[in-house]
Amino acid sequence: MTNPVISATGLWTPPHSISNAELVASYNAWADIWNRENEAEIKSGLMDPKTHSSVEFIEKASGIKSRFVIDKAGVIDPDIMAPRIPERPNEQISVLAEMAVLAARDAMQAAGRKPEEIGAVICAASNMQRAYPAMAIEVQQALGIEGFAFDMNVACSSATFGIQTAADFVRAGHAKSVLMVNPEICSGHLNFTDRDSHFIFGDVATAVLIENEAMAPAAHWKILGTKLKTQFSNNIRNNFGFLNRAAPDGVGAPDKLFLQEGRKVFREVVPMVAEMIGEHMGELGLTPEGLRRMWLHQANANMNRLISAKVLGREAAEDDSPTVLDTYANTSSAGSIIAFHKHSGDFKPGERGLICSFGAGYSAGTVFVERTG
């Protein structure tokens, strides 16, 4: 059987970053405006006033300190409170495809891979710019890759689901090299006027090359095993799609943006993911002591701390489970890939780690890897 491996990863980061202080200032200014405009209803008891956010609240709730975004000006403008990304003509490459191409080129350069050597492209992400044509096909065309391409969406677990899908294609001989990209403009579906979640997301693009071991560079990552799990839950939801229209004011109704029952998610996902990791380790004959590092989904620092502790049987150090959440925020499918991309260069041959995702669906994915070369 052909052995699939991870040859390289790529990352593209937007040039604009918003600190918690900047985000809080814009939200509080918006809240003050809203309270003034609805002063009569508030005084009569028909409405509750909007309370201020704070840097301390955000960091305690999430561990996030800043985030990269495609458009900073619109997000921090109290009169807009949303990214404003100009539409492009159909003849021009779309925004998400452009992001994906930049991350892909980074991965291809790292692996020394030419477009003609790649046989398939998977665009695995939460936030697709359109229903069709597939984003992946546009990325394929922009890079000059032959073969086939398609999109897949499993929310925050899209990348791990994409890695298993690509690995299966390699094993079956459908492609020797598969490019899997994760472009995410999460700021587009975030309600920046919701105090409980206005700080959660950021924008980014990542890429992973999954290939036949025979063509991979000497230093690569063996895929020891992959495991996927889904379980329906309404606790993380976004109802916006081509069957739904924005509100008349163009801002969008609240239920068309990101919605989350945060406490329920925390309570239900942490044990589910920890148990899944433990079961998969057992199936592969691995032990917590033999795990050099975990690159977990970057959604919430407290969730990652608890999951790591349950898996390792002790409190995890930063080296055990590194975070990029503080500077990137939650980037959905790309989060665990960013952590892997930035915090895997110190691995020695034979050392093993885990790429793990979890999120809306619920969905979860585990990819155990071993460094070679």
Task: Tell me what the structure shows.
The chain has 373 residues and is an alpha+beta fold. It has a domain at 222-371: 3-Layer(aba) Sandwich (Peroxisomal Thiolase, Chain A, domain 1). The protein is 33% helix and 22% strand. Strands 5-4-6-7-1-8-13-12-11 form a nine-stranded mixed β-sheet, sandwiched between helices. Strands 2-3 form a two-stranded antiparallel sheet. A hairpin with a 3-residue loop joins strand 12 and strand 13. Helix 5 crosses helix 6 and helix 8 runs parallel beside helix 9 (301-312). The mean pLDDT is 94.
Structure at a glance:
The protein is of the alpha+beta class.
Low-confidence stretches: none
Span from first to last CA? 21 Å
Q: Helix fraction?
A: 25-40%
Q: What is the CATH architecture term of the domain at 222-371?
A: 3-Layer(aba) Sandwich
The CATH homologous superfamily of the domain at 222-371 is named Thiolase/Chalcone synthase
The class by helix and strand makeup works out as: alpha+beta
Rg measurement, Å: 21 Å
Q: How many strands, which pairing sense, and closed or not: the largest β-sheet?
A: 9 strands, mixed
CATH class of the domain at 222-371: Alpha Beta
Quaternary structure state of the chains depicted: single chain
Please, what is the average pLDDT? Answer: 94
Q: Topology as H/E string? A: EEHHHEHHEHEHEEEEEHEHHHEE
Strand order of the largest sheet: 5-4-6-7-1-8-13-12-11
Q: Any idea what the shape is?
A: globular
Determine the number of helices (DSSP H or I, runs of at least 4 residues). 11
Strand content: 15-25%
CATH-defined topology of the domain at 222-371: Peroxisomal Thiolase, Chain A, domain 1
- Give me the count of strands: 13
